[in-house]
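This section describes the prediction task in plain terms. A model, or a person checking by hand, is given the sequence of a single protein chain and must write out its three-dimensional structure as a string of tokens. No templates, partner chains or ligands are provided. The sample shown here is typical of the held-out split.
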Amino acid sequence: MNPEPNTSLKINIFLSAVSAEFKTEREALAKMLRNNHFVREQSDFEQGPGTLLQKLEVYIRDECHAVIFLTGNRYGAEPPAPEAAPALNGEPKRYSYTQWEYIFATRHNKARFVFSPAADYPLSDDAKNRTPEDPALAALQTVFIDEHIRKAGKDRSPFHSLDDLKDQVRALRLEALRYARASHLPLKTEPPYVGLRRFEERDREHFYGRDSLLDELLPVVQREPLLLVTGHSGSGKSSVLRAGLIPRWRKIHGDNAPILLFNPDNNPFEGLYEGLRTAGIDKAECAWVKDGHADVFGELVRRIPSLRGKAPLIIVDQFEEIFTRVPLSARDTVDQFVAALVAAHRSGSGSIILAMRDDFYGNLERHRTLCDILDTGERTRRIMRPTDSELRAIIEAPALSHGV
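The expected answer:
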């Protein structure tokens, strides 16, 4: 008899469902499963190079252990014609994104668990408020379910309520773990760890363990025009902002959302200039910021064409450099930069995050107006070092995503 698999093992699960029909159910399952597993959804692959369909297949093929499908009457969205991949056996059939996700799981021999609602299942508000789908598309969905799911014997018992669905999914745990142990996903050759350096936005695929923190931080950033993020040296402030917050910001506001990231160095206005140049702003359009302006952040959205009328996300990383790097002879520059931050807060010129080591918090006392702003409400957020469970995810998840 084979021994039971290690039930503490976390596996990669992909959740597939048409949002117009099962968005509420998918989100509830994701929240439940993330306590024990690594969960991905289609929206996690919408950013970055390559077509969405290509990225979905690569993930399901190379990293995913099991796919959970919620199927109903809706066909869902189709990939655009140039993106559509050839169907199984080269047959020129139409498939939606969710159907392709099932096809990829079949093609690459992944565990597939398909759940459909019972006739008495109460529709969620998401589904009730949607306009009816074209009958021709619903017919395509019916044919797909019959040919690819029912004939393959992959459909489970219909669920009668959300709690019933959760119970059925929980019951899959040992079955999914056995399959994951037997799958022997190939190891990738590129190491998934960044070592002692901080995480950058390009490392977002390997950034794990900080979801709860980001879930709390993002709404505050969207709500407050000025925010201080502080914590001990090594607590992960820079990594959280660069590899965690920025990708989530782009997911909400689009790949072209203006984001400026810079360090003050020995002159914060010159640091801002370097941040603008890194963001692709022509030097002729932004050279003026180096001169120092009391309303520099408001001027950005008025004077730079690509920022005009937009509210950029501005991250001043290692903000303590205004105390440690700027020469004493240039303290007026610091005062002017702090005045610009205060003016930006009052005018709402974008969302500004200051990331600073907490042992320099006392240095802010000479800037009372800024202190008063940051001491109000939720405008100061302290990042703690990872908990034991977060450290486990930080260590295990990148390895698991590489097939370990």
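For orientation: Confidence is low (pLDDT under 50) at residues 1-8.
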